Amino acid sequence: MSAATGRALEAVMERVALTAAEVGPRFPLYADPGDGRWTTTGRGSWTGGFWAGLLWLRARYTGAEPDRRAAAACTARLEPWAGADTATRGLIFWYGTAPAGGDAEAAALRARAARACLSACDPELGILPWGEALGGPRLLARVDGVPGTVPLLAGAGPDGAAAAAAHLHRHLDLCLGRPGGAKPWFRPALGFEPATGRWHPCEDPPAGWSRGRAWLLLAVADALLQPALPAGDFGRLTEAAALLTARGGVLTGRPVPPADTARPDGPLDTSAAAITAVALLKLARTPGPRAEQYALRAEEVLDRLIRSHLTGDDGARPPGMLLDGCYDEAKRLAVRHELVWGDFFLALALAALHGLVDITRV
């Protein structure tokens, strides 16, 4: 914890207030790096929970009742997604409600979403399928359908904990190659073909998608902190964390990775770095010889983000914007922008460093 992180947290929280005034009842998605104006969605899509989560973090930061009411109102607007056919309900309802702490209405919505996800799990495939709500084929295993989903399901009783473990381990089986095995070693998305009963890698997202690796590392870190999951999972999960951090260059590579590691001169993705920082802070809270290394690297990543990619109070743009996030490089969509989930994970990491939240519970 330092004066620099304190100033960064203050700037990010002020940015949340400014964003709330701009977007009203809509959900921010990404902001123009030149003037900070947001592109918004009416229902939130897969990112809506991150906006609700940011509002909860601001409510914790200020302690003000109007901020708490704004966070609660935004969370309530996520309700239609509880029954939607999408594995991104983990992103929506875990990160949109866990920062609320003991808020009863947020907890009730989270429980409802967890039960809905549990009922949608496919026991034969061993996963909660990607789903059709956001378009594309339903029977996909994608790494961004794992973070949030693991703790969400784990809160739905013994059956939920079993489904969470199955969902995560099946994704680890499918998405991570074995050392010395077939290339590439990381496959962020695979489709299931019912006619053949086989999984096949998808071309999109690409194997070098750095945010995909960050998402899976976060899911592993969350699982290691879940007491409801089987104790026997610990060894497999620590091995997965070691593989993701070592082969992905998380501990030794650039603190802010390129959006596609196969294109090192392409756009960066600060949102991948922010997700990774949170995952590392969580891993640092698990027993093992790498805990100190994880904590030090998390601080290094955060230092780079706030010193090189966070706007300051220079008058040209609003302060507290985390720039250089890449939504979708292949589609050239928002490739150097402020992204709402990048803001959320930066805010979460900074809030954890300053004792506003328990990183093991969010």
What are the SSEs and their pairings?
Blueprint: H1 3-23, E1 27-31, E2 38-41, H2 48-62, H3 65-76, H4 89-95, H5 104-120, E3 140-142, H6 149-154, H7 157-175, E4 189-193, E5 198-201, H8 210-224, H9 233-247, H10 270-283, H11 291-308, E6 338-339, H12 340-353
Antiparallel strand pairs: 1-2, 1-6, 3-4, 4-5
Helix pairs in contact: 1-2, 1-12, 2-3, 2-4, 2-12, 4-5, 8-9, 8-10, 10-11, 10-12
Structure description:
The chain is mostly helical. It has helices at residues 3-23, 48-62, 65-76, 89-95, 104-120, 149-154, 157-175, 210-224, 233-247, 270-283, 291-308, 340-353, and strands spanning 27-31, 38-41, 140-142, 189-193, 198-201, 338-339. The strands form 2 sheets. The chain has a 3-stranded antiparallel beta sheet with strand order 2-1-6. Helix 1 (3-23) crosses helix 2. The chain is globular.
Supply Rg.
19 Å
Described by strand count, sense and barrel closure, the largest sheet is: 3 strands, antiparallel
Per DSSP, the total helix count is 12
Helix content: 40-55%
Write out the strand line-up for the largest beta sheet, numbering strands in chain order: 2-1-6
Instruction: Tell me the fraction of residues in β-strands, as a range.
Output: 5-15%
The beta-strand count equals 6
- Per the principal axes of the C-alpha atoms, what is the gross shape? globular
The low-confidence runs, each spanning 5 or more residues with pLDDT under 50, are: none
Element pattern in H and E: HEEHHHHEHHEEHHHHEH
Distance between the termini: 19 Å
Which structural class best describes the helix and strand composition?
mainly alpha
Mean pLDDT score: 95
